[in-house]
Amino acid sequence: MLSFIWSLIVGGVLGAIAGAILGRDVPGGIIGNIIVGFIGSWVGTKLLGSFGPVIGGFPIISALIGAVICIAIYSFIVKRMA
């Protein structure tokens, strides 16, 4: 149970940092940050492998790069639809 809570915290922080890097808010607040952190971790791990230190089950550098990619893609899609 504690590892799950730790994963939620790390995922949320990764999503928030990725949003700050791009200067865009993640829709959904904290829940959105957690989702972006989890999806970004998956994307980053698929693209870069398990690169960097692992905290809460997330390879930090890969997950952060993946989260930035996810937010950039989401922002691009939303702009195109508006």
Please describe what this structure looks like.
One of its GO terms (cellular component) is plasma membrane. It is a multi-pass membrane protein. The chain crosses the membrane at residues 6-23, 30-48, 54-77. Helices cover 77% and strands 5% of the residues. The relative contact order is 0.19. Strand 1 (54-55) and strand 2 form a beta hairpin. Strands 1-2 form a two-stranded antiparallel ribbon. It has helices at 2-22, 29-48, 60-81; strands at 54-55, 58-59. By secondary structure, the protein is mostly helical. The mean pLDDT is 86.
Strand order of the largest sheet: 1-2
Question: Quick check: average pLDDT?
Answer: 86
First-residue to last-residue Cα separation:
41 Å
User: Low-confidence spans: pLDDT under 50, at least 5 residues?
Assistant: none
In total, the number of strands is 2
Rg value: 12 Å
What count of domains describes the coordinates?
A: 1
Number of helices in the DSSP assignment: 3
Overall 3D shape: globular
One letter per element, helices H and strands E, the order comes to HHEEH
Which structural class should the secondary elements be placed in? mainly alpha
- Helical content stands at over 70%
In percent, how much strand structure appears in the residues?
under 5%
Major sheet size, sense and barrel closure: 2 strands, antiparallel
